Amino acid sequence: xxxxxxxxxxxxxxxxxxxxxxxxxxxxxxxxxxxxxxxxxxxxxxxxxxxxxxxxxxxxxxxxxxxxxxxxxxxxxxxxxxxxxxxxxxxxxxxxxxxxxxxxxxxxxxxxxxxxxxxxxxxxxxxxxxxxxxxxxxxxxxxxxxxxxxxxxxxxxxxxxxxxxxxxxxxxxxxxxxxxxxxxxxxxxxxxxxxxxxxxxxxxxxxxxxxxxxxxxxxxxxxx
Length: 224
Known about the structure:
By secondary structure, the chain is of the alpha+beta class. Helices cover 29% and strands 15% of the residues. The chain is built from seven helices and seven strands.
């Protein structure tokens, strides 16, 4: 038998905090104390199992502990512990003026030995952005755009994960909008498709499957 001193000690504390007749009541997850200071509140953990696994009766565990005398949660007595959540601190106002962050036209000219920049443009120049609040609208629009590509068009995808799923599962059972078929259509019409996908461990298997599937698509008959 492997001894777990910490867990055994916790069991002892849990069983000895009150008489057997009202132990469950004293450990009720809905019981809260009035031990609060600047946003930090000590409360009992949600369940007996959680208390055992976390070796903690009151939370936040690093700040609070169970007080046997008052049968409530309170702050640990540690010298120098700051219980503030920051709301009582005076903070410096951040810099808000554009000139605090960006070079003025005069500063840009001075940095170029007196030669002004005549080709300046805002960072949004030429951008065409459409926002979507519903997932279906986004995938419908993406399917429409990808299906209308032609020779010389470039499609570049960047994302966390990929999967061989349809863009429009509600249309024809998704048979006409599978990712493989959409990408194959882009390539066969003379376009190119490149994806930069994060090498995350959670989606590793399906990302590799999609990679191999896309790489197996024959080259375009017109552009090679």
